Amino acid sequence: MNALRALRLQLDWGADEALAEAPHDRLNDRAPARAKASVAPFPANGASARAWELANTARNPAELRAALAGFDGCSLSATATNLVFADGNPDAGLVLIGEAPGAEEDRAGLPFVGPSGQLLDSMLASIGLDRKKLLITNVLPWRPPGNRTPTDQEIALCLPFLLRHVALLRPRHLLLLGALATRVLTGSSQGISRLRGRWVEVGIPGLPGPVPALPTYHPAYLLRTPAAKRDAWRDLLLLRRRLGP
Ligand code: URA
Question: In the chain, what is the greatest distance between 2 CA atoms, to the nearest angstrom?
Fold first, then answer.
């Protein structure tokens, strides 16, 4: 069954033949392009000062989680069932950042456990990665009601916690899943289809140097737009190549 799912994914990635006439190094399909980026400014209000203060006093991920759980400045926390902080290994060099929990994640208190998460797991497995060995989190730790688009205000209130989380994790690489994670971390207003597939350097307050980040499509977008899986596969190969064997 797993083999069948993996085969189907290969077809979605665009595999249409088992062998080409000439050897083809697909790991070197695209040279990594690099661009400087910085954290995007979002409009902030009074509660945001408290969010920055709370986030920046956390000395480790457990303290940050506790600070977030006690923060009532973002109204999303009132409608969510659970705080969805992170899943995986905090010592991993690779951190994946998605958008916001959906219904399943809200129920479980864990990121990417619904349909998007199942696709994400298969995508990771296709390049030999296991979600337990990396760290997965989201821009927003609470589900927006009915999965509506989060407001700039909500994003601004959660951003200090996300940035502090990344600073505490000190990852070697970031994989930005979708437009929102890409926008808040790179500060670019260009669309995800332009930004995906190129490494950018992201400045994180508190870290001595920029962190290389690769924007790619969000798994939920890939579920709606199977034709985009071909590009997502290229992005995964870039990631695999960068991480090394
Ligand atoms: N989509 C996300 O961006 N994050 C999740 O945790 C689940 C779905």
Answer: 63
